[in-house]
Specification:
By secondary structure, this protein is an all-alpha fold. It has a domain at about 60-115. Helix content is about 55%, strand content about 0%. It contains five helices and no strands. The chain has helices at about 1-20, 35-50, 60-75, 80-85, 95-110. The protein is elongated, with a radius of gyration of 24 Å. The termini are far apart. About 15% of the residues are buried.
Length: about 120
Amino acid sequence: MKYIILILSISFVSTNFIFASGGISGGGIANIPQGQDREKYHLGKAIFNQEISLDSKTISNASDQEERLEYLQGSLPNTEKRRVNLPELSGKLSEEQLQALEYFVQVRFNIKLPEKKKDKQ
């Protein structure tokens, strides 16, 4: 009887180790780009996390920026949507800063943004 209990307890413990899932892995964080894109990524990250003080002056293309920032906001995961409000940055970003922010969101959250159509002149 003593051996039966011992064998059952060993088999119970060993099956728990065999069928263990290995834990929950977090969401995949994208690899940080290397080279020239690295600066763009970190600028976008700083803007996203509001680590950069932006000019209070408004830029002429604020409505265009607001549209792009609203699209970015809608593309974010729900947890990030509650944390940041990207449309409030409209009119405060230079074109370079806006492109860096879009690049960061694309890389960090694995989002595919639509291609920008260039005006043919």
